[in-house]
UniProtKB/TrEMBL annotation:
Function: Vacuolar Fe(2+) uptake transporter.
GO biological-process terms attached to the record: intracellular manganese ion homeostasis
Compartments, as annotated in UniProt: Vacuole membrane
Sequence intervals crossing the membrane: 74-98, 138-160, 167-188, 200-219
Ranges in a coiled coil: 98-128
Gene Ontology molecular functions: iron ion sequestering activity; iron ion transmembrane transporter activity; manganese ion transmembrane transporter activity
GO terms under cellular component: vacuolar membrane
Protein topology in the membrane: Multi-pass membrane protein
Keyword Methyltransferase found: no
Reactions catalysed: Fe(2+)(in) = Fe(2+)(out)
Entry's family note: Belongs to the CCC1 family.
Alphabetized Pfam families for the sequence: VIT1
Official protein name in the record: Vacuolar iron transporter
Length: 223
């Protein structure tokens, strides 16, 4: 009898332990999913800014290089593109995200007026505020990422005097940078790496080729 009672007691004791383990595993999965969803705000701004910094600055430098072989002209063009682009990205992202914030706050206010239970409203409001977009965070991430991306073609062209070699090095460095940023965005966002990298790389090549070709055409026609 003592043995049977001990056995029953052990069974009763192990059931809540297993339940707690399952609850903890479920909680860890939910937390992991929540972390990735919160990354979407700054990740979108950072990836967009880095790609734009790479492509737009390199395209500007390639366009100037199509009609002027002076290294100083390319570097000054790239630096001006870095400063102007970083400011433009920051302002644009701030205004865009702030508009989204205003809409979500207005929606929260409408939902609050429809709920009669004050305690439940307070809890929902606190939870919702934790997931609201942050305009300053998005603007800073976008400007910083743009600057980092724009530094790639600038550094690649800074120490090469030969015109043709300089253009080739800029294209190569930008291509590598596009693949790296495409891979980083895919890893952080849990997206397919190959599709992301190819999409970013082909888009960058097209932008540089179109800018170089059109600028060369206009420069040769002396318009």
């Amino acid at each position: 009898m003592a043995t049977n009672q001990a056995s029953h007691s052990d069974r009763k004791f192990t059931i809540p332990v297993n339940d707690d383990a399952n609850q903890q595993a479920s909680l860890s999965i939910e937390i992991g999913d929540f972390d990735y969803s919160k990354r979407s705000q700054w990740l979108r701004a950072a990836v967009l800014g880095a790609n734009d910094g790479l492509v737009s600055t390199a395209s500007l430098m390639m366009g100037v290089g199509a009609v002027k072989q002076d290294i100083k002209a390319m570097i000054l063009t790239g630096f001006a593109g870095l400063v102007a682009g970083a400011c433009s990205m920051a302002i644009g992202e701030f205004v865009s995200v702030y508009s989204q914030l205003d809409m979500e706050l207005a929606q929260m206010k409408r939902e609050k007026q429809r709920v009669e239970n004050g305690e439940r409203v307070l809890e929902n409001e606190e939870e919702d505020k934790g997931t609201l977009p942050n305009p300053l965070q998005a603007a800073a991430a976008s400007a910083l990422a743009f600057s980092v991306g724009a530094m790639v073609p600038l550094l690649a062209a800074s120490f090469i005097r030969d015109y043709k070699v300089r253009l080739g090095v800029v294209v190569g460095a930008v291509s590598l940078g596009l693949v790296v940023f495409g891979w980083l965005g895919a890893v952080l966002g849990k997206a397919p790496f190959v599709k992301s990298a190819v999409r970013v790389l082909v888009g960058g090549w097209l932008a540089m080729a179109i800018t170089f070709g059109l600028t060369k055409l206009i420069g040769s026609s002396r318009l």
